[in-house]
Design goal:
Rossmann fold; seven-stranded mixed β-sheet; single chain; 2 domains
Length: 464
């Protein structure tokens, strides 16, 4: 089971041959009002003479389909149907091209049919059980190779991992930011209606979920460390909502905080040296810190009313949280001073939200320039997702009239948001919670297929 959730170290298993082309990035910004999808063509992967067997054909088809799926998943690309460029592939121009530049590729022809990004690939056989893949993505407008790679000694089982590595290179070339295809999600799910809620780790798209918690009792509020090596979650294993930490590499779990009352909502500082979480004494919920290795919890943020949902900014200079000190719960941000790498102290705090009946679960962009959160709109009896600047300005609504939408979390490159929703076929009808994803501007909302009866409270880990 561990091997399914540890990221591939594939590049150490393959020889990366001399072809290694990467042009300057083309910055595609989803936030820009001028943003539109990049029209991409990914024709069927070619086969060298050495790769004429059925295994090679199946492998090439699987690789091409996966790359097209990854492009579509990002929300950045629009995949052009092969019917639009069928004639181009039938003309004398070779499917492959020289090792230098774009060779004699018919750039004008591809541009005429509307293609902006063209990916061509060829699979050849190294041995009875290994292959090489030569693959290039060309920016048609610039007449340049954005990314070019040659991978060798690929086994049949490694092709998807190779394509995801390449997909990350493409994302970096087009956005100047990290990829996402070697990241993981952690979330709470149930395989059926009668099952207890368990913690799952899945691929970036919700596929291949692996259960990491055990026992017929509820589990809540999972979160990754910034390096993806640990997960915190709350479990009722001992009859109390206790905070646990899971080691991804070893698969071991231990209790982190078990004080009587609430121990929930763990959130790692980027340094990984401290965890903030919600704790309670005699029903009063406040925010505490604790070391990942264990020890005594330390009171961090307290006041009249509840203080919950801590979320450190990427640079550690601030923490967003939810407080009910003025009545209904609202989002606050506190400026921090670190007395030591494990002792954050609040210098000052500021209330950010004033609208909404109940605002919760703030989440920072990787750049620290925006905060997403869930807010309850009493007039329509729905939770929806919003986004704002860290000072509370430039408030935007991201969801509307599609069930309840809660627990946002940004992708490692900040281009997408994963969240939970109980919508039904996009309608404003409540059902069982599932995981959804959207562009960070609220566009392109769609469900992630986990294969589980229920999936909720996602957290998106780093790209490894």
């Amino acid at each position: 089971m561990k091997s399914q959730i540890i990221n591939f170290t594939l590049l150490t298993l393959m020889a990366l041959l001399p072809l290694n082309v990467s042009a300057a990035s083309i910055v595609v910004n989803i936030d820009s009002p001028q943003f539109r999808e990049v029209v991409a063509a990914i024709p069927e992967f070619g086969l060298a003479k050495s790769a004429g067997d059925s295994d090679s054909r199946a492998m090439a088809a699987e690789a091409q389909a996966e790359l097209a799926r990854l492009f579509s998943f990002t929300g950045i690309f629009k995949i052009m149907s092969s019917a639009a460029y069928k004639e181009l592939l039938q003309k004398p121009d070779p499917r492959w091209y020289s090792d230098e530049g774009i060779g004699n590729l018919n750039v004008l022809g591809w541009k005429t049919v509307g293609v902006e990004s063209l990916t061509l690939a060829e699979l050849s056989k190294d041995s009875a059980s290994t292959w090489s893949l030569m693959i290039r993505t060309i920016d048609i407008g610039r007449r340049d190779v954005l990314v070019g790679k040659k991978y060798s000694q690929i086994s049949r089982s490694q092709i998807i991992a190779v394509i995801r590595r390449y997909g990350d290179q493409i994302l970096r070339a087009y956005t100047g930011k990290s990829g996402i295809f070697n990241s993981k999600l952690v979330f709470i799910g149930r395989p059926n209606a009668n099952a207890a809620k368990q913690v799952y780790i899945s691929d970036f798209d919700g596929s291949r979920p692996v259960q990491i918690s055990r026992g017929n009792y509820p589990h809540l509020s999972p979160s990754f460390s910034s390096d993806g090596k640990f997960v915190t979650f709350t479990s009722y294993e001992a009859g109390n909502p206790d905070l646990y930490i899971y080691d991804v590499a070893s698969g071991s779990t231990r209790k982190l905080s078990g004080q009587k009352g609430i121990n929930s909502g763990g959130n790692f500082a980027t340094s990984g040296k401290v965890v903030a979480f919600t704790g309670s004494v005699n029903g009063d919920a406040d925010i505490y810190t604790i070391l990942p290795g264990g020890g005594s919890r330390r009171l961090f943020i307290s006041g009249s009313g509840l203080d919950v949902d801590p979320s450190f900014s990427p640079d550690g200079s601030k923490i967003a949280f939810v407080s009910g000190r003025y009545g209904n719960p609202h989002i606050f941000v506190a400026s921090l001073n670190w007395a030591s790498p494990t002792e954050p102290r609040v210098i000052s705090d500021k209330r950010l939200t004033y609208a909404g009946w109940y605002n919760a679960t703030p989440a920072w962009t990787p750049e620290g320039d925006r905060i997403a959160f869930a807010g309850y709109d009493k007039e329509i009896d729905r939770f929806d997702l919003f986004m704002m600047n860290p000072d509370g300005t430039k408030l935007e609504r991201l969801t509307l009239r599609a069930g309840d939408n809660e627990r946002p979390w940004f992708s490692p490159n900040g281009q997408n948001i994963v969240f939970m929703s109980n919508r039904t076929d996009g309608k404003n009808v409540k059902s069982v919670h599932q995981l959804y994803i959207m562009n960070r501007d609220g566009g392109n909302q769609r469900q992630l297929e986990t294969g589980l009866y229920e999936a909720q409270t996602p957290c998106w880990g780093p790209n490894l």
